[in-house]
Amino acid sequence: MSAITPDLVAAHQLTEAEYERIVSLLGREPTYTELGIFSVMWSEHCSYKSSRLHLKKLPTRSKLVVQGPGENAGIVDIGGGYAIAFKIESHNHPSFIEPFQGAATGVGGILRDIFTMGARPIAVLDALRFGPLDDPETGARNRRILEGVVAGIAHYGNCFGVPTVGGETVFEPSYAGNPLVNVFALGVFRKDQIFYARAEGEGNPVIYVGAKTGRDGIHGASMASAEFSEESHQKRPNVQVGDPFLEKLLLEACLEAMQTGAIVGIQDMGAAGLTCSTCEMGSRGHTGIEIDLQYVPQRESGMTPYEIMLSESQERMLLVAAKGREQEVVRVFRKWGLDAVTIGVVTGDGKMRVKYHGRVVAEIDTRALADEAPIYDRPHTAPLRTAPLEAPGFASADLNRDLRTLLTSADLCSKRWIWEQYDYMVRTNTLQGPGGDAAIVRIKETGTSVAMALDGNGRYTYLSPREGAKLMVAECCRNLSTVGALPVAATNNLNFGNPERPGIMAQLVEAIEGMAEACEFFETPITGGNVSLYNETLGEAVFPSPVLGIVGLLDTRPPLTIHFKNPGRAVVLLGGLGTCDPVRFGGTQYAKQVLKDLWGLPPALDMDYEKRVQAAMRRIAESGLAESAHDLSDGGLAVALAECSFGEDPIGAVIELDSRLRPELLLFHEGPSRILVSTADPEAVARLAAGYGVEAPRIGTTAADVLKISNRGAALIQAGARELKEAWEGALEKMLHA
Amino acid sequence: MKFGVVVFPGSNCDHDAWYAVSQNLGEQADFIWHDSTDLGGADAVILPGGFSYGDYLRCGAIAKFSPVMAAVRRFAQEGGLVLGICNGFQILVECGLLPGALIRNRGLKFICRPVDLVTVTTDSPFTNQSAKGEIVRIPIAHGEGCYVADERTLDELEAEDRVVYRYLDNPNGSARDIAGILNRQRNVLGMMPHPERASDPLLGSTGGLAVFRSMAAAVEKAAVR
């Protein structure tokens, strides 16, 4: 075995201090295999060493939370004896290097996190961030990455048989060198059939199931913990290759094997593969695990212990069975045509002991690896930003043209081209798929439904990490309330740049603190998630991009959708027109798409009012008074009105406003706490809203195929709804094929 | 009556089909495992959607060799009702129970979308509860659903009134807008759209339920006779 040199330590992305810590924990020099094991377990990706200190600030508990952070996924009680497991995870770095496989294995990884707990995945959503499609320099590559990522998600999810029911896609120059691919998955199971990733019971056999181990993905976790350079594309072999068919078999076999009662604990092999699953199961079970790598099914010959331990080959699981009952488990996996091999045993000595043909190649305390990882309180100063605070002078030349610019922008145009490539209906539970404010999936077993939404606004968070994070929580909750669901719990994905830069670290800290405050206030504890740092290429960081996924509960009923259904109905703006000044206008889509600028601060948020607006909305949805509902967000009032008009048979509206705001702000400001409702009974809606101290002015009437907006008698917008819809719907494809 | 829903490794609409016929329609339904050599006394068989055996080769090309397909073939030859949905349709053409082939969609992309279908014939055990010319909305979800056959076969399908459904707005490039076809004996239907996804009012359309209801009616009628 080669000696451990400082160069070798550096090549493993371990600092000198970290190496010394390893030596002191072991009481000796590590072997080469041990060095590899420490390097992945202590990588940023696996150890959360830069974020852990701050993640503690997040609320994680409520009456409904069964399992918070620390397991494969968070679990929430949905009543009727059932629970849901859900989590979001990133696959940013692999998706940049190899978009199709990177995104596909991102889906595969999060699905395993769900079904390893015993839950059957019933929904996937994804939050995607790319560079601009029309950029003269990077556009071609950005388009290729988008097409690859979407095809990869479709390939994996469609074949596996989980509906991809929603998500969001945003374009910004800062993502050109570092796209973000965050995948959320949710599964359902009986509350008394939850499985945990714990190795318990000394003498119980440790069984390897699923795909054979190959050389793919070695050091994937470390790759995900470093910035990109010009040589990053040489890291393509570090990206794993996914096999959704095998994963589908693994799902069915695992769920069936769990029914035997012979499984004690189970964990998927994701980042850091066999290393991570072995030591985490031992650490959580307060036990040790001894394995011999000669029994690990391998698809290549001549693999070293180091390679076997660090491989990130996909579609593999590690489980602990009750001693003497392993054949019951093996039989199920055989039925599904899968490898299931006993590779070791649970021990009582708290050590992860790895042998190769009987010779010990690594012996490390499981808790040293999993729990003794370094924790850094990295210095943080003021959040990095270069945008000015003051607003530039601006005046619209043509508001109609501005609206069209917004509706045909990559951020706001129809994403049908993307989501039609996803099977969003398989499992016949999708009450509302992509294109709404929140996705709704019914639970056949309980007669209730789960609503889900993902949100994140990098521009807001860039202008103010703290306020941006709060706005994100508010909007995500609002999306759920708009379909009538009560938000109950959340999962987060923190995508930031290099935490060793104090300005970036400050973004992370302030965003977490803002999120913590808002999640506490809106009663949506964080039950798990993922941190993805070092999202930088050549020193250029992405916008601070936290992404939040929130789940909500509601009764199963026909969905309340965003589209106007009938002409002649009242249009009510629940929450009122709101207000805005030019400084708070700098993060809007109008500033981005029309003015090509960024300044000031994100919109002002009154969390108390927001909460009341949402409560009123849920009450209105429940009462059946609303024919449609759509929350205001990107693009403000005018864009939201247009989106309401874009039903299968477009129905517009004639809107007459009474406001002192200048037209650009009035039409396009993105102040929160506002929801458009169409109803046959605006007085009843206003009465319900008043009960919550929320204003609900009637601002107009739906009308066939026309969208007219005026303020105090002055015409601002006049367009055909059908014609606007066509432009909005075809925009993305046009950009892709430009 | 009893429906049998075949489960191949990689089937993923098996449970949906089972739910539609058992819960939405209210008939008995059982699953049939792919290595089974009999159909467990099913009166009608459904080959569900999904990616049988991963479909890494040609869709349905491996499934055709599975033990259960020998039983399905015998069942079909004896006049039993066989409905192939999506991947099930692909399997039926691969094993020669239906003519033609299903190739990649015209746009080379997977498409998931509710589509409108014209009911071309009601002279079939799958559409006896429908009206001729009736337009039903049933979703598609496939990457390889472009139906192709030589001109003579297509002419024959039309001359023999074996085209059951046509797309109103052809999404995938299928020859002559064909969405579903019968075998010559009219007891085997292959269709790319998913009727099991349009069998529950909560999901927005019940246009697919008539397919299962027709099958049940046909089986009842045969039993009475």
Number of domains of chain B: 1
Largest sheet of chain A: 7 strands, mixed
Q: Widest sheet of chain A: strand order?
A: 8-10-7-11-9-12-13
pLDDT < 50 runs, ≥5 residues of chain B: none
Poorly predicted residue ranges of chain A = none
Instruction: Give the overall shape of chain B.
Output: globular
Question: How can the largest sheet of chain B be summarized?
Answer: 9 strands, mixed
What's the total count of β strands of chain B?
Answer: 11
Describe the structure in your own words.
The complex is a heterodimer of chains A (738) and B (225). Chain A has 738 residues and is of the alpha+beta class. Chain B is α/β, with parallel strands linked by helices. Chain B has one domain: Class I glutamine amidotransferase (GATase) domain (Rossmann fold, 3-Layer(aba) Sandwich). Helix content of chain B is 24%, strand content 26%. Chain B is built from five helices and eleven strands, in the order βαββαβαββββαβββα. Chain B is globular. The interface between A and B is medium-sized, with 31 and 30 residues.
